[in-house]
Amino acid sequence: MKIIARDIPPRSAWALEQAGLHPLLARLYAARGVLHKDELDDGLARLLPPAGLLGIDAAARLLADAIAADLRICIVADYDCDGATACAVGVRGLKMLGARRVDYLVPDRVVDGYGLTASIAERVHARGCDLLLTVDNGIASVEGVAAAQGLGMRVLVTDHHLPGPVLPAADVLVNPNQPACSFESKCIAGCGVMFYVLLALRAEMRQRGVFDAPGAAALPAEGAGATPRTGLPQPKLDTLLPLVALGTVADVVRLDANNRRLVAQGLKRIRKGAMPPGIAALFTAAGRKAATATTFDFGFALGPRINAAGRLADMTLGIELLLTEDPARAAQLAQTLDAINRERREIEGGMREQAMAAAEALFDADAAGAESLPPAFCVFDESFHEGVVGIVASRLKDRLHRPTFVFAASAAPGKGHEIKGSGRSIPGFHLRDALDLLAKRHPGVLLKFGGHAMAAGCTIAREHFETFRDALAQVAGEWLDAATLTRRLDTDGPLAAEYRRAEMVDTLHQEVWGQGFAAPTFSEELQVVSQRLVGEKHLALKLLHQGQPVDGIWFGHTEALPPRVTLAFRLDADEWQGVRRVRFLVEGADA
């Protein structure tokens, strides 16, 4: 691993500090490209206006007409946390805006696979649905959309995934990544897209005189020239922001300025106790405090518990948790999800060991340096569970610093000849583009594929596994060079001694950090006073930081460190007998 300190533009840091930011925060934000304090304004009025989303006005009209006609609306969701929160945002929001008959259906990961399929369209139609609304999926569902329309349903697709060469012929399509869409936040999550559709719908209904003009609400401009009319009080859609914040962070989308504002607004409400009972119950089940909620809680405590339902059970559990208004039922569902998540961790642990052993068999484990590794990894085992392959691929990618696919046998009826893979990538290797190239070079190998730059999925026939593995390695070898294949950890450089205190930890944790806007990580040479293993897999450290003792912990690391070493670390605080002390969470050591 190569530890690299980020460049900190001195003028930007000085300007931010002069504008009133804490000196350390000014330095951190400047290093992440923030030039002016107003970029950090997380007020609702600073959100991008919905009008920038192609198709959103047509979506608003379609939904307003459906509500006016009392049509039955069915939401088809994805089975991850973004899909679950997008579904909850859609159901709650549509009901707030007057829809009386709103239903939802979430595909089964094993039986149905991903997205709107013809069979799902038939099930939705059997429920008497008039309007089918997809959330966090649908951009690749060409056949499913056609099937739904063939059954007489109208289809509104809301999604954020990258489109394929052919778009579905939906009645309306809202996706910032579709051609000709000028919306600046291309990385908004599925739950964010659904939230924006609701904003546009409310504006449309206000234009129709259903709602009064907004009073104290400070949401972005929803429609130029909106005229106040006598109607019902305008519903406050900002109550949905805790769900949007959770789904945005859990989906690991890049936290651009707009996404950071959505997350910040959700966090503020959660910290004040204003959240659905299901989110409150998840905090309790995870042993976290909602009053001090952080993006870390979303990504590593709440999100995994909801995702576990889609991986091992039925995401209906997660969606029902997010929809219920009954605290007792929420507590029961949260405990169920917590138990499923523990099972997921056990399955993942065993799979990870098997996958790592299989990966190590592909290279010389005794060879020194990253050059001994192939440029990409693909692992398949009959015993793997397809609901956990994505997590295992992520763990292997982190360990090996290579684009990685992990495959499991399909458990879907009649699909025993297929295997399903989930991939994770490293910076500099666009995984979906790589699959697209592979499909062109080897027609017929990929039965289905889709995804993003850093995460993608595909289905292939068992007999084509070796072809896929070799073809992916060939593309990786062409696209990646030695510098890209060397693990790099960007940090914020040394930590001044005066900032090594618990109050500073709290200040940092209150900010919005995540994908594309990394949490503060510091690095400098430290003296290792003592070290010992705890729990057989974590390294507990006593360190000297600028002459002062500080505790450290390196989770998942067992190899001993030299007496002096350059470490990358995050700030944390633990409490013992009522006293809070700073500790360093070690992220890596300079090779």
Shape: globular
Specify the biggest β-sheet.
Answer: 5 strands, parallel
Mean pLDDT: 93
Chain oligomer state: single chain
Total beta strands: 17
Low-confidence stretches: 224-229
**Helix and strand composition category:** alpha/beta
Give me the side-by-side strand order of the main sheet. Answer: 3-2-4-5-6
* Distance from first to last alpha carbon: 5 Å
Beta-strand proportion: 15-25%
Helix content: 25-40%
- Please state the CA-atom Rg, rounded to the nearest Å: 25 Å
Number of helices: 17
Quick structural summary:
The protein is of the alpha/beta class and 591 residues long.
Give a structural overview.
Mean pLDDT is 93; it is low at 224-229. The radius of gyration is 25 Å and the shape is globular. It is built from 17 helices and 17 strands. The protein has helices at residues 10-18, 23-31, 56-68, 81-96, 118-126, 142-150, 190-207, 241-250, 257-271, 277-286, 295-312, 316-323, 327-360, 389-400, 431-441, 465-479, 502-509, and strands at residues 2-5, 73-76, 102-105, 131-135, 154-158, 172-174, 377-380, 404-409, 418-424, 446-451, 455-461, 488-491, 522-534, 538-545, 548-555, 564-576, 579-589. It is of the alpha/beta class. A 5-stranded parallel β-sheet has the order 3-2-4-5-6, sandwiched between helices.
Attribute tags:
single chain; 591 residues; alpha/beta; five-stranded parallel sheet; five-stranded mixed sheet; 17 strands; 38% helix; globular
